[in-house]
Amino acid sequence: MSSRRTAVVVGPLVAASFSAVLILSGTAGAEDEGPASSKGGKVVDEAPAGVKLTTLLPGKISVDNGSEKTAITATVKNEGTKDSGKIRLLVVGFDGLVVKNVDGCSAIAEKDLPEGSNSGFACSLDNLAAGESKSYAVDATYDLGKTGKICLPVQTSDGSKTFWQQGPVPFGTTNPSPNAPATPLLLGTDNEPAGPGGKELPRTGPARDLLPLGAAGASLLTAGVAGLWWSQRRRPAVREG
C-alpha cells in the first residue's frame, strides 16, 4: 500500500506486560524522545463508564544512520475515574518501521498481523488504575529510505473491542541527515528520504489505500475515518518475546 494514512487494527492477542525504559547501543535513548503525544489517536469502541484509555508516543525519536536502530517508548494511560480491568496494548509496525521487541510482551505471529503491517507485539495488563499509566520499551529499526508508521491499539483482553487507537501514525523528517550519526524523526511527519529521487517515496504493500471489512469498518468510514480491519476475529498464536 502506498503511504497508508489511517488504519484500525482489531484482533485477539495474548501477551505479558512490563514497564521499562530502553536505551539501545548505537541509538538515541529515551532522554532524546521529547514530549509524549497522543497525535493520531482516536476512540473506536466506547469504554466502560468511568474508564478513559489513551496512548502516548514520543514527539521525537532518533534513528542511527548506520545500524538503523531506534528506541521508542509506548505508553498507555487511564485518564478516567475507574479502573480499566483487563486490557491489552498492541504495538504494530508499518512500512520502514519494524518493531523488533517490546520488553515483557509477546510477538504477534506473522499470519495474525493486520494487513499492511510488518511486525507487532501484544502487551497484557491485568488492570490499569484510574489516573495511572504504564510504559513499554520498544526496540525497533527504521529504514530511512521508506516511510515508517507505528500503531497503538488498546483493546479488551479478548480483543472483542478496541477502546482507543493511535495511528498508524508516521515518524519522519523532511530534512534528512544522511551524513550525520543519527537522523531525528518527528511524530506525525511523513519521511522524505535523502538522495536522488528522495521526494518520491517507495511504494510498499498492496496498491490500495482503504480496506474496510465488515460493518465495523463501514461504520468508521461513515464517520469519516478509513478502517483497516483484521478479516478474522480469532485468538492468534503468539510466541513469547
Tell me the β content: 35-45%
Shape: elongated
Taking all residues together, what is the mean pLDDT? 77
Low-confidence stretches: 1-7, 10-31, 197-241
Count of runs of 4 or more consecutive helical residues: 1
Q: Give Rg in angstroms.
A: 17 Å
Helix content: under 10%
> What is the distance, rounded to the nearest whole angstrom, between the alpha carbons of the first and last residues?
28 Å
Q: Largest sheet, if any?
A: 9 strands, antiparallel
Identify the quaternary structure here: single chain
- Say how many strands there are: 14
Order of helices and strands: EEEEEEEEEEEEEHE
Structural class: mainly beta
Would you give an account of this structure?
The chain is 4% helix and 38% strand. With 241 residues, the chain is mainly beta. The strands form 2 sheets. Strands 2, 4, 6, 8, 9, 11, 12, 13 and 14 form a 9-stranded antiparallel beta sheet that branches. It has a 5-stranded antiparallel beta sheet with strand order 1-3-5-10-7, with no helix packed on it. The two termini are 28 Å apart.
